[in-house]
Amino acid sequence: MKRLLPVLAIGALTLAGCANTAPLGGNVYTGSQAGASQTVTFGTIEAVRVVQIQADSRAGGIIGTGGGAVIGGLLGRQVGGGSGRDLATAAGVIGGAVGGSRIEEAANRVDALEMEIRRDDGQRVVVVQKADQRFQTGQRVRLIGSGANVTVAPY
Q1: Which strand (E) or helix (H) includes residue 2?
Q2: pLDDT digit string, tens, across residues 8-32
Q3: pLDDT winner (highest mean) among 85-94, 95-104, 115-124
Q4: In Å, what is the CA distance from 136 to each residue of 32, 111, 118, 128?
Q5: Cα-based angle 39, 40, 42 (whole degrees, multiple of 5)
Q6: CA torsion 56→57→59→64, rounded to 10°?
Q7: What is the mean predicted confidence (pLDDT) over 122-129?
Q8: What pLDDT, on the 0 to 100 scale, is given for residue 36?
Q9: What angle do CA 8, 10, 11 make, to 5 degrees?
Q10: C-alpha distances in Å from residue 130, one per residue of 36, 49, 73, 115
Q11: Among 64, 92, 130, 151, which lies 20 to 30 A Cα-Cα from 27?
Q12: Where do the structural domains in the chain lie, given as residue ranges?
């Protein structure tokens, strides 16, 4: 059992950050976007800044926090005896929960670009999307969609 614990720990923490970040980019459409009519406007990129998007966890953080707590408790239980073992188990649960939560949060971050775009009608807009393409200042682009559902694509 003691040899199995490190394998379980690594496996659980690896799965902790399984967020689906694919729809955050300009090259992936959701099922509801496919086949739907979307508006297209044109513009020029005025500024580009590298940022990160914190993707939502599908399980609301339960996997990282809960998995970390269980693994931390199991590992803490391997230490000492008597009341010392109980304290080590409690410390392992708390430390594992904090560590698992942080691992899940870090795994759910996606590199992205914040692009300030001057549309051809003169209005300026900012769009943040996954950095799955290269964009640069002065580049002509298409803005596809409207409202909170806009992606930027090369012209």
Answers
A1: none
A2: 555 554 544 454 445 566 667 677 7
A3: 115-124
A4: 29, 16, 13, 14
A5: 150
A6: -140
A7: 94
A8: 77
A9: 65
A10: 21, 12, 37, 11
A11: 64
A12: 4-154
